[in-house]
Design brief:
Layout (H helix, E strand, L loop, with lengths): L8 E8 L3 H13 L5 E5 L7 H4 L11 H4 L15 H14 L6 E3 L1 E9 L4 E8 L5 E11 L4 E6 L14 E2 L14 E5 L3 H11 L4 E6 L5 E4 L4 H10 L1 H25 L1 H15 L6 H4 L12 E4 L2 H8 L2 E5 L2 E5 L2 E4 L4 E3 L2 E4 L3 E3 L6 E4 L2 E2 L7 E2 L3 E2 L5 E3 L8 H22 L3 E4 L9 E2 L6 H4 L7 E2 L11 H10 L7 E5 L4 E3 L2
Parallel strand pairs: 1-2, 1-6, 2-3, 4-19, 6-23, 8-17, 9-10, 9-17, 10-13, 11-12
Antiparallel strand pairs: 4-5, 5-6, 7-18, 14-15, 15-16, 19-20, 21-22, 24-27, 25-26, 27-28
Protein name: FAD dependent oxidoreductase
InterPro entries: FAD-binding_MO, FAD/NAD-bd_sf, Flavin_mOase-like
Keywords: FAD, Flavoprotein, Monooxygenase, NADP, Oxidoreductase
């Protein structure tokens, strides 16, 4: 006797990831399309994504929360550059305020998803990370909101002699709760946003902190508190003040980026001048804070109230620019012959990029090879029906792009419902269209993974815009229909390219 299998649960939309993107997607679905059924699957046991995962000292945003926060939910805290606990509280408040608690299914990791044109739906293989149980769900749409890096491991280069070091070696992505660095010599390897965050935080209690970098980064002090925003809240109230501050900060961010792109030499001189003012007299600024690339070829590192520079001025932190020859029992030996002694070594050496959360995709039995796909409006993949990938800006606040993308997605679903369509499949009209990397960014963590990521085209709608103003037009103001987005009805397989 054969035991009947329980029916597979079906949803209109399956959102993967309960971080800042997935929470935003859930809120837009709940408010814009209340009749749609959806669930948010989160592989970990808690919401918040990055802001719950990372626990290293000093962790904070490097974008202001008036733009990194959601457009629909004012940021009410006095800190503009905020620490992780405040951001996490904001995200979980968003979940509760929008009734999303019941929609989030924790410890649910998506392993694979297969699209059936005959059924016009995805079948999704899921693992319960708490029990090991396997289950299946089906959905009309798959919304991948897991960001673009691996949550289970960070990037650590191979260091000769690593096993010789007698002290602890930790990566910020797996910071041990019991690590005691008070009164000790700490060596932080790296020069990016994580390193410049860690150094001043560790320097508060460590005997000495050294930031060892192979190549300098651009580092700029920014106010931790936005005085104008806090004043406007008093005068205008939360909602109006937030809207005005958000617009101000968007315009400021766009202006700075454009200035750096158009006048890189002037931008370099300005940043150097600011750094010189922040550092002790006679400090070798060009050795440690003058990168070989132009400003905004990689992301600028922000330090709230100049805390990194203050630690250097106080003598509790220093910077060394050199290459590691080998680890030793007591630290590292540099290519210059100098040895840096340390009790604790922190490898702030970056992230491992992983597109779509490592999910294995198939369309009608054929595996989807991401580098063979081209991104449509920066949010869908050519030849992959009813699939959205939510990736924010690399040159601005991540959430600015996510909000526009979620709006556009909801408008597309509403249009399809109104006209009886249930399948949306982007396809370039020119299969020989020139392409380039989807994330056209010089940062090392992107370059290491560029051959595993989707591509972008040389024209709209296949270009991945990095301009908020351009995306406002494309994703908010323009029509959701496009000649290269093929809409169809599964019942009779009628296809249109409206």
């Amino acid at each position: 006797m054969t035991t009947a299998q329980p029916p597979v649960e079906h949803l209109d939309v399956l959102v993967v990831g309960a971080g800042i993107s997935g929470i935003g997607a859930g809120r837009y679905l709940r408010t814009e399309l209340p009749a749609k059924s959806f669930a948010i699957l989160e592989a970990r046991a808690a919401s918040g994504g990055t802001w719950d995962l990372f626990r290293y000292p000093g962790i904070r945003s490097d974008s202001d929360l008036h733009t990194f926060g959601y457009e629909f939910k004012p940021w009410r805290d006095e800190q503009s550059i905020a620490d992780a606990p405040r951001i996490l509280a904001y995200l979980r408040e968003t979940i509760t305020e929008n009734g999303l608690d019941a929609a989030i299914r924790y410890s649910h990791r998506v392993l694979a998803a297969s699209w059936s044109t005959a059924d016009a739906r995805w079948t999704v293989d899921v693992e319960r990370t708490d029990t090991g149980e396997r289950l299946q769900l089906s959905a009309n749409w798959l919304f991948c909101a897991g960001g673009y890096y691996r949550y289970d491991e960070g990037h650590t280069p191979v260091f000769a002699g690593r096993e010789r070091f007698r002290g602890p070696i930790v990566h910020p992505q797996a910071w041990p709760e019991d690590l005691d660095h008070a009164g000790k010599r700490v060596l932080v390897i790296g020069s990016g946003a994580t390193a410049v965050t860690l150094v001043p935080a560790l320097a508060e209690t460590a005997a000495q902190v050294t930031m060892l970098q192979r190549t300098p980064s651009y580092v700029m002090p920014v106010p931790r508190h936005d005085a104008l925003a806090n004043r406007l809240r008093t005068l205008l109230g939360e909602d109006r003040a937030y809207a005005l501050t958000r617009r101000k900060n968007i315009a400021r961010g766009i202006g700075i980026w454009r200035f750096c792109q158009k006048y890189p030499r002037a931008a370099r001189r300005l940043i150097r001048w600011v750094n010189t003012k922040q550092l002790p007299e006679g400090y070798p600024v060009d050795e440690h804070f003058n990168p070989p690339y132009d400003p905004w070829d990689q992301r600028l590192c922000a330090v709230p109230d100049g805390d990194l520079f203050r630690a250097i001025r106080n003598g509790t932190a220093d910077v060394v620019t050199d290459q590691i020859e080998t680890f030793t029992e007591d630290g590292v030996l540099l290519a210059s012959g100098r040895e840096l002694e340390a009790d604790v070594i922190v490898t702030a050496t970056g992230l491992n990029v992983q597109a779509i959360g490592g999910i294995s995709l198939t369309v009608d039995g054929e595996p989807v090879h991401l580098p063979d796909t081209v991104t449509y409006k920066g949010m869908m993949l050519s030849g992959v029906p009813n699939f959205v990938i939510a990736i924010g800006y690399t040159n601005s606040s991540w959430t600015l792009k996510i909000g526009l993308l979620c709006e556009h997605f909801c408008r597309l679903l509403a249009h399809m419902d109104a006209h009886g369509y249930d399948v949306a499949r982007p396809e370039p009209s020119d299969p020989d269209m020139p392409t380039r990397p989807f994330l056209d960014f010089a940062a090392g963590y992107i370059q290491r993974a560029v051959d595993r990521l989707p591509r972008q085209g040389d024209r709209m709608p296949w270009l991945t815009s990095t301009s908020y103003s351009a995306d406002v037009k494309l994703l908010r103001a323009d029509s959701v229909t496009d000649p290269e987005l093929h809409l169809s009805r599964s019942a009779d397989r009628t296809e249109v390219t409206a």
